[in-house]
Amino acid sequence: MSSQENSEENLLKKQDPAHGAVAVADDPFADPGLPPHEARQQDLDERTAKRSERTVALFFTVSMLATIGFIACFVIFPVDKVISVWPIGKVSALNFSLGLTLAVALFFIGAGAVHWARTLMSDVEIADERHPIQASPEVKAKVLADFKQGAEESVLGRRKLIRNTMFGALAMVPLSGIVLLRDLGPLPEDKLRHTLWGKGKALVNMNTGEPLRPEDIAVGSLTFAKPEGLEEHDHGFMNEIAKAALMIVRLQPEDIKDKRELDWSHEGIVAFSKICTHVGCPISLYEQQTHHALCPCHQSTFDLSDGARVIFGPAGHALPQLRIGLNDEGYLQALGDFDEPVGPAFWERG
């Protein structure tokens, strides 16, 4: 007997129960169907359902309290406050509290929704056959009917406590985003209009830290100054020096063309803001022969002998001048603040 005949005989034996072969089911992938539905305790006992309702309402209430806590933390904690949290280490108190309260608010909205669905909404399993992508009028009608049925089974109409607390939680969570808009930056108020300069403030050399006398400034030289009392280790030094940085030059009084500039000077010593009115770069170049100050960023050029007006470049307006004089000890002092805001594009920003 050939091997082919043996194979055919073995195949017949497997297919024939008489030869001891095991019978195979007609459809090994048949749908076993859904198990019998078991009613939940909430479906059988109204007191249990009420307890679940109160639990869901508690979750939504905790979410509302967390949202209020988020807003309170935003107001209470300063930006620079640092706390130690185990095991994270040192973190910003503001960032940590905002993240924690917002996480609690969102978590308990989700927990309330899940607990609501698992204990009070209908839990009857429904099998639905696949259908074409384009819905027929019958399907659309069925969808609307299912929606109405789902609305009824959600017991939203009967469980007013859940409905009201859920609406409260969902309405208050967006307040977190609104409050975050406040963190885009500090409100400018009138801070951009004023600097640390004021009447009686001595002009202090930026390099030596010593008050300046008229004899310390030679004709044709360029000196940088800061207000008396402002130190590099002070909190907010960079913000203040960005507005108060001063550029001092000494001209021959007869070379000064602008009358107000001459009136606000002392023996030819004039003080102008060091901050360029284009994009805020510090001006550091001075041409002694022409009395021109040059910004190194975009080459805006200011004539310091004519009110620091712009003679070249993209700067929009002249450098503000600081009125100066002498105090009783013979040191140069400011006689007030700048009469206009310093820096670039103020009117567009402020």
UniProtKB/TrEMBL annotation:
<dbReference type="InterPro" id="IPR014349">
    <property type="entry name" value="Rieske_Fe-S_prot"/>
</dbReference>
<keyword id="KW-0472">Membrane</keyword>
<dbReference type="GO" id="GO:0046872">
    <property type="term" value="F:metal ion binding"/>
</dbReference>
<keyword id="KW-0679">Respiratory chain</keyword>
<keyword id="KW-0411">Iron-sulfur</keyword>
<feature type="transmembrane region" description="Helical">
    <location>
        <begin position="97"/>
        <end position="117"/>
    </location>
</feature>
<keyword id="KW-0560">Oxidoreductase</keyword>
<feature type="region of interest" description="Disordered">
    <location>
        <begin position="24"/>
        <end position="48"/>
    </location>
</feature>
<dbReference type="GO" id="GO:0051537">
    <property type="term" value="F:2 iron, 2 sulfur cluster binding"/>
</dbReference>
<keyword id="KW-0813">Transport</keyword>
<dbReference type="InterPro" id="IPR036922">
    <property type="entry name" value="Rieske_2Fe-2S_sf"/>
</dbReference>
<dbReference type="GO" id="GO:0005886">
    <property type="term" value="C:plasma membrane"/>
</dbReference>
<dbReference type="InterPro" id="IPR017941">
    <property type="entry name" value="Rieske_2Fe-2S"/>
</dbReference>
<feature type="domain" description="Rieske">
    <location>
        <begin position="238"/>
        <end position="333"/>
    </location>
</feature>
<comment type="similarity">
    <text>Belongs to the Rieske iron-sulfur protein family.</text>
</comment>
<feature type="transmembrane region" description="Helical">
    <location>
        <begin position="56"/>
        <end position="77"/>
    </location>
</feature>
<keyword id="KW-0812">Transmembrane</keyword>
<keyword id="KW-0479">Metal-binding</keyword>
<dbReference type="GO" id="GO:0016705">
    <property type="term" value="F:oxidoreductase activity, acting on paired donors, with incorporation or reduction of molecular oxygen"/>
</dbReference>
<comment type="function">
    <text>Iron-sulfur subunit of the cytochrome bc1 complex, an essential component of the respiratory electron transport chain required for ATP synthesis. The bc1 complex catalyzes the oxidation of menaquinol and the reduction of cytochrome c in the respiratory chain. The bc1 complex operates through a Q-cycle mechanism that couples electron transfer to generation of the proton gradient that drives ATP synthesis.</text>
</comment>
<dbReference type="InterPro" id="IPR045603">
    <property type="entry name" value="QcrA_N"/>
</dbReference>
<dbReference type="Pfam" id="PF19297">
    <property type="entry name" value="QcrA_N"/>
</dbReference>
<keyword id="KW-0408">Iron</keyword>
<keyword id="KW-1003">Cell membrane</keyword>
<keyword id="KW-1015">Disulfide bond</keyword>
<keyword id="KW-0001">2Fe-2S</keyword>
<dbReference type="GO" id="GO:0004497">
    <property type="term" value="F:monooxygenase activity"/>
</dbReference>
<protein>
    <recommendedName>
        <fullName>Cytochrome bc1 complex Rieske iron-sulfur subunit</fullName>
    </recommendedName>
</protein>
<keyword id="KW-1133">Transmembrane helix</keyword>
<comment type="subunit">
    <text>The cytochrome bc1 complex is composed of a cytochrome b (QcrB), the Rieske iron-sulfur protein (QcrA) and a diheme cytochrome c (QcrC) subunit.</text>
</comment>
<feature type="compositionally biased region" description="Basic and acidic residues">
    <location>
        <begin position="37"/>
        <end position="48"/>
    </location>
</feature>
<dbReference type="Pfam" id="PF00355">
    <property type="entry name" value="Rieske"/>
</dbReference>
<keyword id="KW-0249">Electron transport</keyword>
